[in-house]
Structure prediction request, 129 residues.
Amino acid sequence: MIIAGALLILLGVLLFVLGVGSKDLPEPEPVSPTQHLEERKARIYEGLRDLQFEYRVGKLSDEDYQRTKLELQTELASVMAQIDTIQPKPAKPTPPKANPNQCPHCNARFPQPLKFCGECGKPMQEAQA
Ligand SMILES: [Zn+2]
Prediction:
């Protein structure tokens, strides 16, 4: 009963911090549209760490631990999803680094990096000025 009560308070504080805290604060410079979400994510991670600690020192029952952990993980998943919505992964990821074993001019491939192409004789590395 005491544990359940303590857990309830912990959850209350957590929800307060997660929910009200970020909304009531005056918006600072909009550094990034996902910043408040990133902060929320960090707090959830912190909550998970605290939870793990309390569980390890025996403050929480297995059941309470699993339930709270699941709640935090659910919250975390929703925050991650929101971050993904706001900040979609770049459509074009950075192109893979040119294969040093492949000639950029004639595309001939070699088993090891070469300075000059064995096929066309041009330098294998472009823009190496
Ligand atoms: Zn070549």
User: Anything to note?
Assistant: Residues 103, 105-106, 108, 117, 119-120, 122 surround zinc ion (CB under 6 Å). Helices lie at 2-24, 35-56, 62-86. The chain is about 55% helix and 0% strand. The longest helix spans residues 62-86.
